[in-house]
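Hey team,

Filing this mostly as a record. A colleague (T.K.) asked me to run one chain through the structure pipeline before their review meeting, and I want the input and output archived in the tracker in case anyone asks later how it was produced. No errors, nothing strange. Just documentation.

Input sequence:
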Amino acid sequence: MISPIGDQVLVEELPPEEKTETGIWLPPTREHQLKKGRVMSAGKGLWHLGTSVRISPEMYPGDIVLFEAVGVALVEDAGRKFVLVPQNSIRAIYEYDN
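Output structure:
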């Protein structure tokens, strides 16, 4: 398995939604759309400038996140495709009611 370093987050991209909850079909090309993915692992974070404080990532394996696809790196491991996303490109974490 790939282990990200620093503020990088390894994400398995999930397929885009084809239909809304109300049944409206979405077009296949949506420019600047946030992508959805499952966090597989995250780096240990970055060091705060001039201190010995590490800023840890805010997401954990299994979290479902929305991220910008700009500046990501596509990687493959054991036949599976992933993206390495900088933490500052992740815009939201899904929170589900149990």
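Quick notes for T.K.: The longest strand covers residues 35-42. The CA atoms of residues 14 and 25 lie 18 Å apart.
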